[in-house]
Amino acid sequence: MSIENLLKVSVRSESDVFLLRQRGREVARVIGMETQDQTRVATALSDLARDVLDGENWVSVSFDVITRPSPVLRIQFAWHGGRDVPRGQVGWASATRLMTEVKAEHTEADRVIVLVKRLPSAVRVPSRSTLALARTTLAESTPSSALDELRAQNEELLSALESLEAKQNELVRLNEELEETNHGVMALYGEITEELEETNRGVVALYAELDDKSRQLKDAIEARTRFWANVSHELRTPINSVIGLARLLLDPAADPLTPEQRQQTRMVSDSGETLLALVNELLDSAKAESGRLRPQLGTVDVRAVFAQLRGTLRPIVPAGDVELVIEDPPADSVLVTDETMLIRILRNLLSNGVKFTQHGEVRLAAHVGEDGQWEFRVTDTGIGIPPEEHKLVFEEFHQVPNPMQTRVSGTGLGLPYARRLAELLGGDLRLHSAPGEGTEVVLVLPVHDKPAHLGRVLLVDDDDAFRAVFRRMIADVATDVREVTDGETALLVAASDPPDVIFLDLTMPKLNGYDCLAAMRPDPVLGRVPVIVVTSLDSEEIDHAALGTGVALLHKSRLSVDAVLDGLRHARGRGGA
Q1: Does residue 117 share a domain with residue 14?
Q2: Which residue range is the domain that position 506 belongs to?
């Protein structure tokens, strides 16, 4: 701490109070304080001095500058005996309000009051030479009279009043500006509110239009599905007749045909089979898009599937330059999926490969990849597909321009149809191809971890023989099996003691499976119970819309423990009934 004394003043009477006030102002001025701070220091000194004087003792007032750690003006009142420190009086309260710090120190005989005023941050720390000059200036200055001090106080008062008036005027101006700004803000708020309301009306209208378009689109999809169903039905009858007649002509027991007639009849039969497959694909594609095509899970032997593909596709492979190679899968290659859908996907991919391959081979191989998923890989040495067409080939009716179009027929439905079926099975198709390098299409199907146990089972079916067979089949994976023969009883039993899973037939007396499902969905408990529909109906005979999205579907002809466990996994993943 560095302390530099600037001045000492003795105060004995009221006239000395005017001198103290004047000296306080001069000290504040020479060390660089602003006019307002000079007035604050002078006022605090005069008010406090009047409270300290008692008419008998004199008071010594010392003015010091402390430069470290931060510059302050310290003023110390000291007197011997007499009255105590005037805490609570006007002078003490004034000093406390105007100065940075006020504190009292006293003994039995001596009294000391210390006033501290911090120098503004804009004021540089006075150097020793500056303080010496200030000390000399103060020593040489001549105190003015009481009248002059009174005039100075009046000037300070007038200056303070002018400053106050200026601040009030500024405050009025700012209030006017603020009020004008508020008017602008309110006007802007009104405009924004009106625009938002108009936008909201537009959004509501857009949502209404979207809802209307969605209904129209749904109606159009349903109309198209009905159209394809009717067309396929009308086409299947004559096509099946053509295929049947061709097979009769080719039957060894029929009248013999010349080689030319036999070849032409075989061409008629093959063309009929191709046309029937196209009709089925069109119908299935429409069903898949409308959500009415559901996989019917069962245990599938991949070796048997590959053997079937070898037999059905061998006639379409041209003799000579193209070879169809279907590799034997690993032993015990079994997965739970829809066998019909799997065969259709692979047949589509192999047929495409054969169509667009002039030399080399078309190869099918299958294995379980490192990620635990089944991969069915179809590769060919054909003409390939340009990169810019990779996404387009999965759009319906799109055909890649190529020099083989003049001799190769197609609808542009094969790959879109195959991808839809793959997605229904929980998998995907991956395409890799380049012009002149052939094509590779990989069907990826998941290998799911099936639940190890069914828990408590409620079996709902009116076929006694089927219930007996099914009960024996699941005996090792079910804790308890309760059996009922109709939907009404099923609802009562399930409500009294909810099972872990329900196996439900669709065609039953009293209350069929559809109505039973509809009654379960709103129930907070039964609506969460997984439901697996077990039926002998074909997919075309099932009302998939009435089933909803929360059930799994199993066909009675393809039941196994693996298929049942995988069906439970599907039902749990879809959220119960």
Answers
A1: yes
A2: 455-573
